[in-house]
Amino acid sequence: MGRSPCCEKAHTNKGAWTKEEDERLIAYINANGEGCWRSLPKAASLLRCGKSCRLRWINYLRPDLKRGNFTDDEDDLIIKLHSHLGNKWSLIAARLPGRTDNEIKNYWNTHIKRKLIAQGIDPMTHRPLNDTQESSKMMSFYNKDEKSRILEFVKRDNSEELLSMWPKSSGSSAAKEWRCPDLNLELCIRPPPSQKWRRGSDGGGAAMKGEAMVGFCFEAGTDDQRFFTWL
DNA sequence: AAAATGCCCAACCGCCGGTCA
DNA sequence: TTGACCGGCGGTTGGGCATTT
């Protein structure tokens, strides 16, 4: 048996909301609070689907919404968060007070995507569009021995040493954007891959089995070997 | 001035996961 | 265990406005 529709479609309005509908919705939520979206339309005398009411409130009528253009800081934050989270608009919106997932999604599709493409960056992977060419160019900063040393430092989880090897020629844009094509460096949120890996090897701060651990995981490695550390 | 085209964004749609009886 | 219900999410659409031809 399939799911029943969320509302009786034949008796609901569609399309743009009128001022009167907005006022009814605001008045009802101010008096009764959010929630029970399914029963809200009837209770508020609105000929709208509950989902439509929820969307209208969350994306447009909520009093804590920030209006106006996105700032450069917000741009940067959205790009950074998207590079880590992908199209998880609700998660991204949770980090931008006063912005909605719908607003950020629209802004991404209409502005940021184009901005990144103009900069030669693939908006989905956040890597150069002509990746192969860029990679070979960037690798000129490191010879074979240096690449081996970097992998060793990653294996030993020695962040200080690893950072000290980062290119120092700050005037070079290529240096700023450096990444090693043989290394896959990415951030993700997930539990540790093994019990051994849970900061337990040195005896300090070990998490017990079954204990919840959530955090940012810095993952690095090659196709053959993977290495992790927590941030 | 009118038509064509492009852009923006509010709103809709379908799906999914959690909850509850 | 199952199915209905509900809230929430991401992808897509289409109407209105702005710009270009």
Automatic annotation (TrEMBL):
This is Myb-related protein 308. The keyword Zinc does not apply. Keywords: DNA-binding, Nucleus, Repeat. It comes from Platanthera guangdongensis. Residues 9-61, 62-116 form the HTH myb-type domain. PANTHER family: F14D16.11-RELATED. Residues 9-61, 62-112 form the Myb-like domain. It is found in: Nucleus.
